[in-house]
# Entry
Amino acid sequence: MNVYYYPAFIVMFAALLILIQLCFKRSHVLSYITSGLSLLAALIMQIYLQTHSNNLINNQSISSDVLFVFNAETSFVSLLLLMVVIIIWAQLYHWLKTINEQNEQNEEYYLLFLLTTMGGLIMVSSNHFASFFLGLELMSLSFVGLIAYCGHDQKAQEAGIKYLILSAIASAFILMGAALLYLQFGSLSFSALLQDSSSQILPQWAIITAIIFIFTGLFFKLSLVPCHLWIADLFEGAPLVTAAMLATLSKLAVFIILWRLVTLGHWQQYQIIIDIISIVAITSMFIGNFLGLLQKKLLRLIAYSSIAHFGYLLIVLLLINNHAISFSSQSFNEQTLFFYLVAYLFTLVGVFSVFMQLPKIKTLDDLSGLFWHKPVIAITLMLLMLSLAGIPLTLGFMAKFYLVMAAVSQQLWLVLTALVISSIIGLFYYLRVIMAMLKTPVDELKFSDIKSDGSSLSLNLLILFLVIGFGVFPSSLSQFIQQVTG
# Structure
């Protein structure tokens, strides 16, 4: 068996163990430990594979087959995915006990949690529409259960139904696009997209239609405009841990697939595809930030913020094979992508970690006075918001700096202007969160039930180290990503 399958197999084996355990005895602690040990083992194995992949071949396929490709880049993305999932898992036990008001059983949540992680690992290494679709459906169907987990909450049930509908629509578009591409290339492998398409079986409009179908399905998964329907309802209705997984693991896996398809298929050769990406990027930046300005509920604010951030990331697709100026290189564009993903994912998982420490805080008004009662939590959230806004000395600023440099080098003036203006708009609602925490508290008792234990403090310090440490000293992270991309 290929050694690069081991991380996914470790996670799958743990899911089976929890399933078998459920047949004999329910144990929340045992399920938590089993899932945690498997994720840690998978992470250690992935670190080992990442080290060896960097030593062997830079930016070349180390091992591949019909369904998957394993190289330094896919290994890095898998490592990033597992690190994000472990940070979320670390808070899962106490969070489940907090919401467990009706003495529900929690073991099934760990099972679905691992299956979602496994689906993400499958997707980021996929080199075939079959493996990609299996990973996508494993992740999506698991998310339906995770979203609707709080059965007594009508908002959670509604969000689960909405996610199921959106997933079905997205899958239908992707399958239709894949079917049309199969007619052209005679294969569902992503590598087949590299074939010379000069001898076209289908007319050019049919190929473009297939690409648009696939884009539409993936845009639904990324909640990009105009496919952002119900994204705020999903974030608000889903349990906090599930919302964190939706915002990080799901979008990471889907965006990597989108990037790989555009890279292998040279879809940027069609001007209409470039126009579509540009329009979706610009509208997502502006609409996401404008809608964020109107929100007072924190989760809805973060939902619309994610629309804007993935609008920024779409600029990376416009950089692929665009050699407007010789200064730019394909490896620099990949470094921009990975640096932005690292910055956004760690910042966002930090925001959700703080929200999990404040289970009863739902709106901006609820945050009023937090700084004066829980200064460590408030300062952590402040710095994370500044990172999302792209303020200097944060990891988010360095990510946007990389993105702006890449866009300037390739003369993408229109999307660059949209990025700058929309970022200024977005700055206002991030500052609103900070200002709310600095207000004089009206109700002195509303923060009395917030308990800051040692694990929460340690997690806050870790998040601050990642976001501020790499923001002030980004060279170590940049050098590591440079080694990955060659």
